[in-house]
Specification:
Blueprint: H1 2-10, H2 13-16, H3 19-33, H4 39-70
Helix pairs in contact: 1-4, 3-4
Length: about 70
């Protein structure tokens, strides 16, 4: 769990470039972690992934808007 959490938290750019990686991680969390007694850790990791994805999308949208406004 700690390794996955650190990876998502510190190196999220790996996930921003590869949507399949995000889907695979979320599948692992839902299918493996949730069913093997790691429900609390899985929920925490899933929240972190969703928060990072939303932040990444917000930053991308802001950058796109600022670039289009400056043209």
């Amino acid at each position: 769990f700690n390794v996955l959490r650190s990876w998502v938290d510190k190196y999220f750019y790996d996930f921003t470039e590869d949507r399949t990686l995000v889907e695979t991680l979320l599948d692992f969390i839902s299918q493996r972690m949730m069913t093997t007694g790691m429900e609390k850790a899985a929920a925490q990791l899933k929240r972190l992934v969703y928060r990072k994805v939303n932040l990444s999308l917000s930053l991308s949208l802001s950058l796109s808007l600022s670039l289009s406004l400056s043209l």
